[in-house]
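#onboarding

Welcome to the new folks! Below is a worked example of what a typical request in this channel looks like: someone posts a single protein sequence, and someone else replies with the predicted structure as tokens. Don't worry about understanding the tokens yet, we'll cover that in week two.

Example request:
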Amino acid sequence: MGTWKVVYIASRQEKKVSRTLTQLGIVHYLPLVKKLQQWSDRKKWVEIPLFNGYLFVRPLEKELEKVLQVQGIVSYLKFSKKMALVSDKEIDIIRQIEKSGYHTEQNFEEADYQLGQKVEINSGPLKGQKGILLQKKGHKIFVILFESFKQSIKINLPISIINKVVE
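Example response:
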């Protein structure tokens, strides 16, 4: 099986592209999170992509061009003319974030943490993951930066499961 790659998707086409890739039998992953959407007459929980405009594919060598022929896929993500490759470990972390529910809003106790400080999660499904701590309106937000495809995720975590990283 090939390595994970990242493709750019046309605006609001992620779910449609995912369905097409499923029909073609191409291994892919579209991380989704639930968000409460407000309309003028009602509220409804909807699933939205965790990374707008991105989808992960794991095509066989012979499927590389076939992926680009799918309507809605713009191109492979590249840095310095090299295709961005994502490790199984990073995909596993994204899957854990998707399943964890940590993206939901929570209130946190204040602690002696500095804005931009490197921290590590000490329990739960993301144990051992390192990132950067941000502060937003009294909440503590943990940022995980995925170097391989230059994207980050902001998630709310209880301060009780975060340790400072001493370098």
